[in-house]
């Protein structure tokens, strides 16, 4: 069965959310705990292209917290 159908969302939205699987674990945890820089949210990562390397996520966070 289709995951998007089971979750009641369109496939485009599901694809964007699944990008979170590539996000550095510390940021997934920060989002879940609602901790971190202002603007750190699931929506931020849905809209942004994530770098493939977790170390590059640090640069993304530096830019976010400014």
Describe the structure concisely for a colleague.
This protein is mainly α and 66 residues long.
**Total of helices:** 5
Low-confidence stretches: none
Based on secondary structure, the structural category is mainly alpha
Quantity of strands, as a count: 0
Report the order of strands and helices: HHHHH
Q: What form results from the Cα inertia axes?
A: globular
| Rg calculated over all Cα atoms | 13 Å
Helix fraction by DSSP (H/I, runs of at least 4): 55-70%
Total number of domains: 1
Strand content: under 5%
Largest sheet: none
Describe how the helices and strands are arranged.
Layout: H1 3-7, H2 11-18, H3 25-32, H4 42-47, H5 54-64
Detailed description of the structure:
The structure is a single chain. The chain has 66 residues and is an all-alpha fold. It is globular, with a radius of gyration of 13 Å. It has five helices and no strands. The relative contact order is 0.14. It has one domain.
Note the main attributes of this structure:
5 helices; 0% strand; mainly alpha; 66 residues
